């Protein structure tokens, strides 16, 4: 697991936490911030997956789930 994959997962977890807290407290701004963090984290993890695929010589490195 490379750095981008780890950081992406960490950001997704932070986003899920912010979304849950925002939902429980009724804080819409925190919910939206959490949703953005989830999306950004998923994108960063996908980028890390693509880097791994390229290093491993996968035929289609643009498909993050192609491991």
TrEMBL record:
<protein>
    <recommendedName>
        <fullName>CsbD-like protein</fullName>
    </recommendedName>
</protein>
<feature type="region of interest" description="Disordered">
    <location>
        <begin position="25"/>
        <end position="67"/>
    </location>
</feature>
<dbReference type="InterPro" id="IPR036629">
    <property type="entry name" value="YjbJ_sf"/>
</dbReference>
<feature type="compositionally biased region" description="Basic and acidic residues">
    <location>
        <begin position="27"/>
        <end position="36"/>
    </location>
</feature>
<feature type="compositionally biased region" description="Acidic residues">
    <location>
        <begin position="55"/>
        <end position="67"/>
    </location>
</feature>
<feature type="compositionally biased region" description="Basic and acidic residues">
    <location>
        <begin position="43"/>
        <end position="54"/>
    </location>
</feature>
């Amino acid at each position: 697991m490379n750095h981008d994959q780890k950081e992406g997962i960490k950001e997704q977890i932070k986003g899920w936490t912010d979304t849950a807290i925002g939902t429980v407290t009724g804080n819409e701004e925190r919910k939206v911030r959490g949703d953005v963090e989830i999306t950004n984290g998923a994108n960063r993890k996908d980028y890390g997956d693509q880097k791994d695929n390229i290093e491993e010589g996968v035929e289609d490195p643009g498909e993050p789930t192609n491991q």
